[in-house]
Amino acid sequence: MRPRSAFRLGIASFTENYQNRIAIAGLQDERVLVEDDYTDYPDFVTLCEAHHGYPATSLQWQPASAATHPWSQKSPSTELLATTGDALRVWEYSSDAPPQSSSYVGRQPTTGTHSLVLKTALSGQSKVQSQSTGAPLTNFSWNEKAPSLIVTSSIDTTCTVWNIDTSSAITQLIAHDREVYDVAWLPGSTDIFVSVGADGSLRAFDLRSLEHSTILYETPAPKNMPPPSASPSASARPPTSPLLRIAFNPSDSNYMSTFHMDGSDIQILDMRSPGSPVMELRGHHAAINGLGWGSAEHPLLATAADDCQLLLWDLASYTQAAASPRSAGSRLNSPRPDVKKRVVTEPVMAFDGDGGVGSHCLWKIDSSSEGVGRITYICNVDLISIRPEHMAAPRLSGTTYTAKIMLAWRPRR
């Protein structure tokens, strides 16, 4: 297993043209993260960058399991980064910087030569050589158990499962009646994934049985809808609020979190009780634009909204009340009795920002050796690190990114 590398971030610009870029940013010296009075090298610097064309809708580092995966076309010393936009692009990052000999943050400065090279671009159901002509991709999910698998969602109503090691599509299916906005693998499974979209439904798919999908949740129809007519289309489902994001609880993958477009509440769903939420989180006062879970050891849920708030929710006491089946494949076939919805209104922590917390809100909870939790998110273009004492981390410098940016933490190994 490769020793822990220097502290790095993947960044993508977001401008309405074909001149977007992605970059790898790192600290010149990691001591700034652990020593409050260390100011010699306080800022992030650009290690390497590459042209991306259209804005990236999602950016992720390879999962930790990729370090030991038997890749056929990848060096063990490099790392993969994936982005979506007009295509699924897989990038290979390499560095000749000396590896750190300890997991202690701050042992060595970030030095050496860094490179970011496009490895493959995938669109439709095949590999593309230049600018893609396929439908734009909205998001993707990287399988942690089998890191060669990525599933993408698209505005053309489809989801596509890719083998990035062979640059080929395993399957493409029509997932929704309208645009698909987000997709996520069931943790621990290489067969089951879920998706949400503009048709207001949350659906589960099993690659072993693609003849049908399971509808786990549908947003309620508007209360003031006119009575159905006698037209042939009267049986069609009336327009409902789209679902924008879906994320699994890493400590209990029976539970998922989602939210409606322009909605201020978070719905917590149980795969064993499809149809309605088992919990609803009410703390925001404006439209929610991002959510994310922490690690399996610290499964806090963070939500960000246009009310300039970042809220942290601890749902362990609610979700641990019910026993969870161990097998990932049993989720869709393990019903629970109807559970009464619980409403939670008090987060365990709240942060009020000066401006709206950005819609591209990727965050991670990290526990240091001192046991101090750290939450990172994007507010405009400043990188803010919130500790209990609200200490701020360095701001980005040395780049020309002036629009919204997207961040992805490199997973620890």
UniProtKB/TrEMBL annotation:
TM helices/strands, residue ranges: none
InterPro entries: DCAF7-like (IPR045159), WD40/YVTN_repeat-like_dom_sf (IPR015943), WD40_repeat_CS (IPR019775), WD40_repeat_dom_sf (IPR036322), WD40_rpt (IPR001680)
UniProt entry tagged with the keyword Repeat: yes
Region listing for Disordered, in residue ranges: 218-241
Keyword Repeat: yes
Mapped WD repeat ranges: 173-215, 281-323
Keywords for the protein's UniProt record, in alphabetical order: Repeat, WD repeat
Pfam families named among the record's database cross-references: WD40
Protein name, entry field: WD40 repeat-like protein
Species, as recorded: Roridomyces roridus
Species classification: Eukaryota, Fungi, Dikarya, Basidiomycota, Agaricomycotina
